[in-house]
Hints:
The chain is an all-alpha fold. It has helices spanning 2-26, 30-37, 46-75, 77-80, 93-144, 155-176, 182-196, 199-212, 214-217. Among the domains are: 42-113, Helix-loop-helix DNA-binding domain (MYOD Basic-Helix-Loop-Helix Domain, subunit B, Irregular); 157-215, no CATH class. The protein contains 9 helices and no strands.
Amino acid sequence: xxxxxNARKGSIVSRANSIGSTSASSVPNTDDEDSDxxxxxxxxxxxxxxxxxxxxxxxxxxxxxxxGYDDLQAIVPTCEQQDFSIGSQKLSKAIVLQKTIDYIQFLxxxxxxxxxxxxxxxxxxxxxxxxxxxxxxxxxxxxxxxNEGKDQVSDEVKFNVFQGIMDSLxxxxxxxxxxxxxxxxxxxxFSWIEEHCKPQVLRDIxxxxxxxxxxxxx
Length: 218
């Protein structure tokens, strides 16, 4: 009986140890799980960095191009004008470029025209300077010889002679020239010069005027 009682107690202890071992093995290992949840932070790969840098560079390029077109539209006057063929639509890049090219060509023509005007004005200034020098020499010569030229024809007689010559020329000019248009005027002027301003014709006019005014000359 004692032997059987000890055997029963040993069996109970053995089963208890077995159950405890099984229960312990079924409990999750919290230390292992914590190590799995605390992973290292994600590291961006070289390919991702390169793709992101390329995207940023492309966006900057697009922004720069857009700003350039916006600046052109603000600078070029013809881009601000209403284009009835387009309506209220936004101008395309092709139209902005074409209008910019046209405006630049217009500016080149205006610059060339202004340069020609400046050149003409410089020639006029040079001619006026030459005339000024000549008149200063004439005035100086009269100041040095105040008695010279007293017996010459008066300015009034000179003007009358000039008026007589111009009146005679104007009569033929008025009869020959048409002012209907600039083209007709130009054609008639050249024709009148060739016909009525020949040296022999001018000579005869001057002689005729002088004969009419001989009483004033002598």
